[in-house]
């Protein structure tokens, strides 16, 4: 299986000399869960053209500093691509911005949340165990996050599988076509997450940035979520 990673954003400018780009983070994440899956990248932020989704094995959309309502020239074509991929039954995975733009493209609604920044280690209740998930299904998932926007209206074709008071639509499993998405960042290593919160200290404020870094000392389920994603891809290979 080949996973096509759609790059929708780049690592914070202050961190690019220290950390890999987002597609490489995802490649490492996927390889850690299933070394037989290969990855390729299509970079929208570098001007590359979207392929025909019907020709792809599976697609993953990365995080981004952009918002779905921004006037970036690649956002509307990406929404059309997501809808076309759903019609073609190409398996899709969205992470953070990817989660949001899938939600918007497939009938939900995304806004800048009045709850403010979500940063640090967030814990979600697993409210439904999908058929494709490895068993036993955990009661919670705790993973690093970094976002201001949120899905505030669930797409009609989606079922909520992970939720919290801060993020009620934190994980979605779409029905009728193979697609899943998560607001959190399983691709973030703890040292990158800590560096990112530090780089955003001015925007976050010292207290919130320090609390976000401190929260990373708790247990993290990023590898478990990576196995979930791989299980989804394997369960829907060839559909």
Describe, in plain words, how this protein is organized in 3D.
- The structure is a single chain.
- The protein is of the alpha/beta class and 239 residues long.
- Helices cover 31% and strands 25% of the residues.
- The chain contains seven helices and eleven strands.
- The strands form two sheets. Strands 2-1-3-4-11-10-9-6-7 form a nine-stranded mixed sheet, sandwiched between helices. Strands 5-8 form a two-stranded antiparallel sheet.
- Helix 1 crosses helix 7, helix 2 crosses helix 3 and helix 4 runs antiparallel to helix 6.
- The two termini are 12 Å apart.
- The mean pLDDT is 97.
Provide the residue-averaged pLDDT: 97
DSSP strand content: 25-35%
Radius of gyration: 16 Å
Helical percentage: 25-40%
End-to-end C-alpha gap:
12 Å
In what order do the strands lie side by side in the largest sheet? Answer: 2-1-3-4-11-10-9-6-7
Write the layout of secondary structure elements.
Layout: E1 2-7, H1 22-33, E2 38-43, E3 58-61, H2 75-88, E4 92-95, H3 97-105, E5 109-112, E6 118-126, E7 140-147, E8 149-153, E9 158-163, E10 171-174, E11 179-182, H4 190-199, H5 201-204, H6 206-215, H7 222-235
Helix pairs in contact: 1-7, 2-3, 4-6
Short description:
Helix content is 31%, strand content 25%. The protein is an alpha/beta fold.
Tags for this model:
two-stranded antiparallel ribbon, 239 residues, 7 helices, alpha/beta
């Amino acid at each position: 299986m080949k996973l096509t990673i759609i790059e929708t954003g780049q690592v914070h400018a202050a961190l690019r000399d220290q950390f890999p780009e987002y597609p490489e983070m995802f490649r490492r994440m996927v390889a850690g869960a299933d070394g037989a899956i290969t990855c390729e990248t299509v970079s929208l932020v570098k001007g590359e053209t979207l392929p025909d989704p019907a020709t792809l094995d599976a697609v993953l959309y990365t995080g981004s500093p952009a918002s779905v309502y921004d006037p970036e020239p690649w956002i509307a074509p990406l929404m059309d691509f997501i809808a076309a991929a759903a019609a073609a039954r190409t398996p899709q995975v969205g992470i953070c911005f990817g989660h949001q733009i899938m939600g918007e493209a497939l009938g939900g609604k995304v806004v800048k949340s009045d709850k403010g920044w979500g940063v640090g280690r967030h814990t979600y209740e697993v409210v439904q165990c999908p058929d494709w998930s490895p068993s036993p299904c955990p009661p919670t998932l705790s993973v690093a996050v970094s976002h201001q926007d949120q899905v505030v209206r669930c797409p009609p074709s989606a079922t909520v599988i992970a939720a919290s008071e801060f993020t009620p639509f934190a994980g979605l499993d779409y029905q009728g076509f193979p697609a899943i998405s998560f607001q959190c960042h399983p691709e973030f290593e703890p040292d990158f997450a800590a560096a990112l919160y530090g780089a955003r200290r001015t925007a976050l404020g010292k207290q919130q940035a320090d609390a976000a870094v401190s929260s990373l000392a708790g247990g993290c389920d990023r590898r478990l979520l990576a196995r979930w994603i791989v299980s989804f891809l394997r369960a829907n290979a060839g559909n």
